[in-house]
Amino acid sequence: MSQADTDQALFAAAEAVRARAYAPYSNFQVGAAILADDGNIYAGCNVENAAYPVGNCAEPSAIAAMLAGGGKRIKRIYVTGPGAMPVTPCGGCRQRIREFADLDVEIVSHGVDGQPLVQTLGQLLPHSFGPEFLNK
Ligand code: THU
User: Fold this and answer.
1) What is the overall mean pLDDT for the chain?
2) Is 59 a known active-site residue?
């Protein structure tokens, strides 16, 4: 599959799951789609809660889907949201991605009405702490 085809498939998967996001409080629906080391695409959406702090972002939902489906490493990840501003992962999600991705993995942030922004994990989370610090 070409890079363009992969990106099209990741965008489509993120948008399909974003439509199912549970975000009645923020009304800000987010989708995330991961190309994993097993070649499959795994997607997840944000899941909010009436007790606001226990809601979760789209990225950990996609990571959970990846692990449940047998994928182990993130090779590329798309995050899509409403509006024109690229939806870049929050700080906590950058660290969650860090657990399963190399620093040169590209994160594509895409507000559906705008242009995609492509950044590496190393750019988004410089000087980061990761599993290798614990010899894992
Ligand atoms: N959100 C995500 O799902 N991922 C991000 O990277 C940024 C924010 C969600 C959390 C919350 O449900 C809504 O967007 C508004 O912050």
Assistant:
1) 97
2) yes
